[in-house]
Prior knowledge:
GO biological process, one term: methylation
InterPro entries: DNA_methylase_N6_adenine_CS (IPR002052), RsmC/RlmG (IPR046977), SAM-dependent_MTases_sf (IPR029063), Small_mtfrase_dom (IPR007848)
Organism: Microbulbifer okhotskensis
Number of domains: 2
Pfam families: MTS (PF05175)
Strand content: 25-35%
Protein name: Methyltransferase
Order of helices and strands: HEHEHEEHEHEEEEHEHEHEEEEHEHEE
CATH superfamily of the largest domain: Vaccinia Virus protein VP39
Amino acid sequence: MSALLHQELVQAPEETLWVADENSKPLLHQTGFHFPGDLLSNRWDIAELAENTVKRNFFNDFHFEELDRKYRRVVYTVSKEKAVVHHIINQAPHFLGEGGELVLLGGKQSGIKSYAVTVAEHLGIEKHLKKHGNEYVSSNLITHVEQDKSVGEFEYTELQVLPEIGKLYTKPGVFGWNKIDKGSALLAQQLTTELPRDRARIVDLGCGYGYLSVQLAALGDFHFTATDNNAAALLACRKNFAVQDIDGIVVPSDAGSELQSEIADLILCNPPFHQGFQVEGDLTDRFLQQSARILKDSGTAIFVVNEFIPLAKKGPRYFSQVELITKEQGFCVYRLRP
């Protein structure tokens, strides 16, 4: 995908906006790569990687109004989250204008064929899809802009309340945004037996919309640092901290790498295991490594992972104690100590 993406980015780069979601990361790692255009991403790690590689760099939850200009081309490798793709399709006509081009890229498994149909119908044009091996490019010219027309069933920018547990806010763009993750729910069930002392410092690593912090905050008086790589998750988590009057901060970070060392009495973590559409083996290692650095010598980390993630083998590289607390519904909860 990197070669195909690069091929599209070199066409009129100064007039191109690169909408860079998780699948754009490999290109930014390439030695000598430079893009003399603007980049917009909802991923903190991508924004950090792009800092000295692009002309202008924007990190937000795809708030296109902050870009202060229009473009002739937008190049976008479609995201794993359907709501994000629909949001990009809906916004593109407004920051491109008539005569602009929206270029979508994706592999076979990304849903790119369906998105090519959706965007063509949305713009009232013929579908244009080219195959390059197992990858596809959908090029779409904006012939007119309909102000009130949109695709998708959700208003992307709006925070919504999860009905299951009252006033817990979430939004499209957060992975698993419209449900309570089964792994996180299983970890939350263990919190009553893993309570730290009052005023303990808690780090919620990969916080999502803040479910684990909200559950623990109801059990005692603690100070929280919640962190995530995703701009939508940070927005939702900040809203929940404000509504629940939680003592703490919500900050962007890539697996906790920006946090200070030895600050946490307790770490809560439900690490992701996908990078884009691929299972990335080192994601768990990165979360474990950063947790070992962030945790105090007297602290504890509680991880929940899918049962196929070999945390029992990976954990001892970073922690002296790795103990399985429970295994249910395809998930394992571990207690880790320095």
